Amino acid sequence: MMTPSWKVFIAIGIAISIRPLVTTLIWLKHAPADDFIGKIPLLSTEDLMTHVKGKNALLIGGTRGVGMGTALALYRAGAHVTIVGRSDHSGAKAIASIQQLSPSTPTSTPGTINFVQGDIGTICTTMKLIEQLSASPKSYDFAVVSAATFPDWTKPLQNDDGLDKSFAIAVVGRFLVYRNAHLFMNRHARIVNVLAAGEKLPIDLFDREIASGERDVTGLFEAMITFAIGNEIMMDGLYTHDDHFASKYYFTMVSTHPGLLKTDLHRGQGFLFDMLETAMVSIAGTTEEEVGVLQSSILVSKQLHLNGLSFVDSFGYGRVHDVKTKSFIEENSSWLWKMLSKLEKSSAKCSAV
User: Is Iron-sulfur there in the keyword field (predicted)?
Assistant: First the structure.
């Protein structure tokens, strides 16, 4: 009897490991189309320039991935770009790369670019960043928030607020930034929230205990879905629970999907996952530069719901929540908003530290 080769064992291991991922990808069907938005066309640098040249753009999470790609597109089009990241080293590296990739031409002159050190991983660091941005004489016309970190279910990491760090950045930090955006954004500014919009997410994986920090994550996919759904509930709450936000500040907001990006941001999730992710990205992934053009095109599009919230998928198509997802968001919205409001009130302790 022939003994199975090591290749068979590896194949079995991969099949077992990727089954949750394959199942999740099958669930991630596109939500119904938003016919008002339709398909947002990609803009050339020259076309983008007519919208952003000489204007101020803020990229929170702009040193890598989607943020850096979008910063590159806006900088090339003549915007005055401010990128926010956690370390001076990553900021300097990102600026050098963006400038190197953006030479002046007879028809196109890049804008300016600078770096602000900041982190939205805890309540206090987020409030510190907001204070920095508010103290600047610069007022922003555009903002793209793509800061995020991959959940780690093998050694869950809670922040100083007792929350999983991934959830803290994806939901709590962004919530505080948007609630205080009037302090550093122009009244009719446009804001892109990059996370996981436009998909028909498996909402049954949403876990309130994980969101509130009462339970550590035990699996990658329940964590990712909890953070993605939590973000969409929070975004919806800005317009349904916050009358001050909706009536006084006329921000046009759009939540988008990052797409399958050629980046190293997803590394470190285990050998098999890393190998699978590398294969998938090499086949169907887009570059940071390409996704930056898409996000920038969405940012300035006239097809968005003005002074409201839009959802756009990774292909540039407008989406609306299906009936089941919409009902689920409504059921959980008050609960999450109360939790976020309580956390916001606790930010008073930051100024005393």
Answer: no
Segments in the chain forming alpha helices (H): 6-27, 45-52, 65-76, 88-100, 123-135, 165-167, 174-179, 208-212, 220-240, 243-248, 271-284, 288-300, 323-345
Decide: 115 and 94 in contact? Cβ < 8 Å.
yes
Rg (CA), the chain: 20
- For residue 84, the cross-strand partners are 60, 116
- Domains along the sequence of the chain with CATH: 27-352 (3.40.50.720)
Burial 44-76 (b: 16+ CB within 10 A, else e): ebeebbebbeebbbbbbbbbbbbbbbbbbbbbb
Question: Which uninterrupted H or E stretch holds 192?
Answer: strand 185-194
Q: For residues 277 and 261, what is the distance between their CA atoms, to the nearest angstrom?
A: 10
DSSP 3-state of 105 = strand
Give the side-chain half-sphere CA count within 13 A for 175. 31
Give residues with Cβ within 8 angstroms of 269, minimum separation 6.
150, 152, 220, 277
Whole-angstrom Cα distance, residue 252 to residue 308?
A: 5
Phi, psi for 176 (deg, rounded to 5)? -65, -40
Residue type, 207: D
Q: Would you give the end-to-end CA distance of the chain in angstroms? A: 71
Q: Which two tokens stand for residue 340?
A: 């976020």
**Contact 295/256 with Cβ under 8 angstroms?**
yes
Residue type, 136: S
